[in-house]
Amino acid sequence: MPRSRLGPLAIESKLGDHPSQSRVWRAIHVQLKKAVAVKVFDAPFGGTPEARAAFAVEWEQLKKLQHPAIAKCYGGGFEETDAYLAHELVEGETLTLQLERRGRLSWESVLDLAEPLAEALKYLHSKSIVHGRMDPDKILFAGLSPVLIDVRINHNHSPFRSNRPPTANELALRAPELVSDPMAASPLTDLYGLGAILYLALTGRPPATGTTIEAVTHSVIHEVPPSPASLVMDCPVWLDKQVMHLLQKDPAARPPSAAAVLLGLAEVRRRSMSRSGVAEHASAGFSALAVTDQRDRDVARKLLGRDAIGLDEKVVDETAWHDRPLILIGGLVAAVALFAYLLWPLSEDQMRRRAEDLLVQQSRTAMNQAKSSYLEPMLQKFPDGKHVDWVKEQIDRVDMYQAEHALEVKLKRNLPLQNEAERLYAEASQYERFGDAATALDQYRSMQTLLGDDPQYRPFVNLARRRIARIEYEGVDADEATQMIREKLNEADELMRDGKVVSARKIWYSIVELYGNNDNVAPLVEKAQSQLAGNATLTDN
């Protein structure tokens, strides 16, 4: 490239964290007026007929893949000596950018990242497909949900692929057998790659060290990385052990499948509610995942400031019967049972405090736990309690947060909307983003009127009420939509004069989409349509 067209696609601008090095472009399907991401491959003389036929078979297989954590493939084609694949356009930042911005992620966020990716790998492996390129720049976020991109059936053997050698940073996340032999990709190398990504997200550093290809290769094959919990002290023991299990050098020592990883992650989520650090568990000896390595136990004790000398020495038990461990433990158990009996069940105030501790974290996992473990039980146990109004308000808040997040993901991924509440709220939000606050306000108010009495739509009705209050507080110009559309058309004209074609097109598309059925502004919509048709093949200067 560069060229302005690829088959039915009008090429606009490059995508990727480093556009100058990227072969992925943002494009518009001219007939469907749909934005896509298109990856372009070149091959000498355009490839052989056999290679072209194999590539066509591959994109037909890719089109059949349907999973919420995998970017959809719409197909492919050939243009002169270039071949291309068109994929769903996921407009979000990569995991690489998130880590550059934040350094590392909290263990809760890493767990939220791990589960969808493991589900995606389980789905791919069930179709006998290996991703083979598990890198943080292959993970995009649609809202809060990770999406795996660049899935291929035949990464290594197709002539239509990138021939760029891996960088040291990319090699640091590869499985040892894949570093030794790039053709050794398997489901188990994908699992190692998943573990490496989780390690990177948890600690902010890859599991292998080195600045040169040779040094990184040696580290991947021979060096065992320090455990995440030795670097991040709030990492739960179970997540630490799961990540290190995935990073085993011997493929046979890793989890046998992505399904097994999902079971392990479910156990991590269940057990991690205790929020105890790995060092505390390992040194105390109560971890459900046994600490078999004496070095791990010593490191844990050192981290906690405890003396590890003499732990394994055998001594003769000459203590009196009443001082023996079994008697002491029995007494301790009895005391703990009495203490638990006196404290259980939790009071209304205690339940509120625990719910508040979770709600303040602002994560989906914590909010769900607050709702299921404390807020809903409070309503059942204390229906006339002093905190009942607060509880109902917080449940509404959690439901609103979850509903808005789910809708955001659907809109970003072009998934079908399930009910009238989602459709109306999405439509109103679109008007608001476009700058037509008056029409948005009318839409939000209509949601109150139409859906206000239906409990199943309560989260979206509450969201609409919140937006109504915000718009009314900020004030709204009640002028007709005609004036606003004229201003948008003028703005698009200015952008065109400055060579910003993509931005201008977005405005024209929005006018056609939002007001295409509004007879009062039909001439202005026609103007936007004519501008789209007249500038279909232009790209930014």
Automatic annotation (TrEMBL):
Species lineage: Bacteria, Pseudomonadati, Planctomycetota, Planctomycetia, Pirellulales
Name of the protein: Serine/threonine-protein kinase PknA
Entry GO MF terms: ATP binding; protein serine/threonine kinase activity
Tree of life domain: Bacteria
One Pfam family this sequence matches: Pkinase
Transmembrane segments: 326-344
Species name: Rubripirellula reticaptiva
EC number: 2.7.11.1
Gene assigned in the entry: pknA_1
InterPro entries attached to this UniProt entry: Kinase-like_dom_sf, Prot_kinase_dom
Cited CDD domains: STKc_PknB_like
Domain called Protein kinase: residue spans: 1-268
Keywords: ATP-binding, Kinase, Membrane, Nucleotide-binding, Transferase, Transmembrane, Transmembrane helix
Matches recorded under PROSITE patterns: PROTEIN_KINASE_DOM
